[in-house]
Amino acid sequence: MNNVNNNNITTQKKNNYGFFATAMFLVSPILTVYFAFKNKNEKWSKNILWFFAIFFGYTLILTSEGIDGYVYWQDLVIMHQRNTNFNYLKDSIFNSGESVDFIAPILTYIVSLFTNSAKVLFAVFGLIFGYFYSRLIWYLIKNESERLSFNKILLLTCFALTNPLWNINGFRFWTASIIFVYGVCFYLLNGQKKKKLFIIILTPLIHFSFSAAVLIFILYIFIGNRTFIYFALFFSTIYYSILNFEFLQNISYVYLPEAYNNRVIGYTNEAYGEQVDLRKLSINWYVSIHNIVIIWFTRISLLLLFLFRKSIIANNSKFENLFAFTLLFYSYANVMSNIPSGARFLTIAIMLTFFILIRYYQYFNIGMKKFIVLGTPILIMFIIVRLRMGFDFINITAIFGNPMIAFFYENTMPLIDLIK
């Protein structure tokens, strides 16, 4: 009888914490996120980060007319002004030969029925992005019985910042990325295979370029864990480019629908490549350096994991599934990094690598853990640079304000202005 009463009291306390967290969120979302991390094993905790993603999207700063987010907003304004009907939207998607990404236009259309507000649009984007973002992070921390070690906190922060919340500014590719990583990790490690495979297959509807990523995953399902072959492929693609732009363009002419063909040609032509190179020249040196060092950190991590993998597999057999696929996908990302905008796929490979490092850290031997310790300066630099990049998009209201202030008070001051 006492045990039943104690269980009821414990349940009541947990429910009270959940109600307290919800009320606290209305006062200070950022502090509530911290409270959620402190209570990471409670059912409600992951939803706090999800709610924060929605709030973050509502307060997102659109820094200039040249960013993707501004284009999304202008599409919303045009749809709202023209009172666009669904038949027009359907024709523009399926018959124009220009667009094969369905989700963003449909979401924009739905929002345009009610408002032309960028805040509402990006809150909706945050709703979708944040769901998968929060579930991935909570999968990595929810069963930790003890406090996270310093190394794990560093790795988790790097994982969270590899595809951070402010990437909803480029909703299509980065949302497809977070959903793809979510689907792959949960499919390979957590069951519900049909449901997760369906989620993975949906990613090309968000960004067409994930058609190839989906095919690679399906290929892996059929071939299985050919770890030695994948490692050889991974190692060779680091140093040797096997991609020929003209070959890729010719293949697209023969096999792909017009809309896909237009996108492939657009992303692989020399003029677009020159535009990307010019943009790279305008980027601060530390942004380029932080990308290079984190790529090599994750590549060396995979090399060491390949050497030490037997001791990890002995404790957790599912490790081989995710590790093998990560080697295969990283090979694809290495190849794609040779075309304009293709380097974005390295971000997915990096996320998968960080996921492995965090998930299986407890099974690492001394050599693997020492490597992570030696890499601490690289991880810290990556975190600092990523945060600096985000300061242009983070509204001070997201940090110091709350939903009520954001709703009633118009503020467009980015965090970087406060620091400067």
TrEMBL record:
Residue ranges crossing the lipid bilayer per the database entry: 17-37, 49-73, 120-141, 172-190, 197-223, 285-307, 319-339, 345-364, 371-387
Record has Transmembrane as a keyword? yes
Q: Which domain of life is it from?
A: Bacteria
Q: Which UniProt keywords apply?
A: Membrane, Transmembrane, Transmembrane helix
This protein is called EpsG family protein
Q: What is the lineage of its organism?
A: Bacteria, Pseudomonadati, Bacteroidota, Flavobacteriia, Flavobacteriales
